[in-house]
Task: inverse folding
């Protein structure tokens, strides 16, 4: 399929969004305390290394998206929820970090467990 | 993958200095590189995730030494040659031709 001129405004307006219309139950709710799994795939992942094993709190549910880890390798969309998860700076960077700072990371269902 | 792209939390890379009034594109070719994504991902059948993975697969030293849209160009080369839409020979020949024309 070629990108024709009439399609350009649509593509530019929506980007290459990975949002999926599928109805999938969320594994977590806002306010849940979670711990990120120690996943170390040699393939694609959107899990930043510095949050592995760290504890955070779910602050927002963005909805359902194609799962990058499978989608990147043509292994299916595996649609699932993605959340904004808050980590304190001290949880991520240790005692020298400010106790007032925190960081929010977008985290998929498959990357974490309840704690 | 635990690649060089995963820079969060690393020391020694220097401060982040946001550019005042940063333009969307610093060079005209960057705009064309942006357009290449929209015009190739559908017919070449790759996802944004496969595109990102192609960037992660750059040689680590190359990744650090090249700019944002140079990363994009590297991904286009990898994805389009992988599918045989462009051959490595065609790509090298075009680069050589453009290089001659520029001199």
Result:
């Amino acid at each position: 399929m070629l990108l024709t001129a009439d399609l350009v405004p649509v593509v530019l307006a929506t980007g290459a969004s990975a949002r999926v219309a599928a109805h999938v139950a969320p594994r977590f709710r806002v306010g849940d305390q979670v711990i990120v799994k120690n996943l170390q795939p040699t393939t694609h992942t959107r899990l930043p290394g510095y949050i592995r094993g760290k504890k955070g709190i779910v602050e927002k549910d963005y909805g359902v998206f194609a799962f990058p880890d499978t989608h990147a390798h043509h292994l299916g969309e595996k649609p699932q929820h993605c959340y904004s998860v808050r980590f304190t700076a001290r949880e991520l960077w240790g005692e020298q970090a400010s106790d007032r700072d925190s960081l929010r990371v977008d985290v998929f269902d498959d990357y974490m467990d309840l704690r | 993958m635990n690649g060089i792209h995963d820079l969060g939390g690393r020391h020694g890379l220097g401060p982040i200095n946001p550019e005042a009034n940063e333009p969307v594109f610093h060079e005209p070719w960057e705009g064309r590189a942006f357009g290449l994504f929209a015009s190739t991902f559908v017919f070449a059948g790759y996802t944004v995730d496969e595109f990102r993975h192609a960037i992660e697969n750059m040689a680590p030293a190359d990744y650090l030494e090249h700019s944002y849209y140079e990363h994009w160009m590297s991904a286009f080369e990898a994805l389009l040659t992988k599918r045989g839409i462009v051959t490595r020979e065609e790509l090298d020949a075009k680069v050589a031709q453009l290089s001659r024309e520029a001199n």
